[in-house]
Automatic annotation (TrEMBL):
InterPro entries: Histidine_triad_CS, Histidine_triad_HIT, HIT-like, HIT-like_sf. A motif (Histidine triad motif) lies at residues 102-106. It comes from Candidatus Bealeia paramacronuclearis. This is HIT family protein. Coiled coil: none annotated. Pfam families: HIT. Residues 8-118 form the HIT domain.
Length: 120
């Protein structure tokens, strides 16, 4: 599977589609999820063209990897959710339920989040 440069997050990165952006640096962009699943639901995406967590883990450089996870930490600091707690999640591929084929981390916060995975 090759990277689809017209996926919605690629278009947000190019500022072709509006988003509620809360953080941007050389490595990452963070914005509010359009369909929040918690009082606070933010997505953090790398600037490079990576399809998934696995693709990023396999192909991103050390600098991109350090930059991206550093940005995630900066977003957590900016949101001031460290003390109360939060959840970071990524969906990868079909069984993971990934809908948008640009690697993204979900950050959920704002209430106790319950069990990790719903029973089927
Ligand atoms: P996933 O299932 O992990 O691929 O999650 C994709 C997420 O992207 C979902 O939570 C959607 O609500 C969110 N989403 C889709 N389109 C947009 C958009 N234009 N702006 C912000 N979030 C979006």
């Amino acid at each position: 599977m090759s990277y689809d440069s017209n996926n919605i997050f690629a278009r947000i990165l190019r500022h072709e589609v509006p988003a509620k952006i809360i953080y941007e640096d050389d490595y990452a962009l963070a914005f509010h999820d359009i369909n929040p699943q918690a009082p606070l639901h933010v997505l953090v995406i790398p600037k490079g063209n990576y399809i998934s967590f696995y693709d990023f883990s396999q192909n991103a450089s050390f600098e991109e990897t350090k930059g991206f996870y550093g940005a995630v930490k900066n977003v957590i600091d900016q949101l001031e959710i460290h003390d109360d707690g939060f959840r970071v999640l990524t969906n990868n591929g079909v069984n993971g339920g990934q809908e948008v084929p640009h690697f993204h981390l979900h950050i959920f916060a704002g209430r106790p989040l319950g069990r990790m995975i719903q029973s089927p």
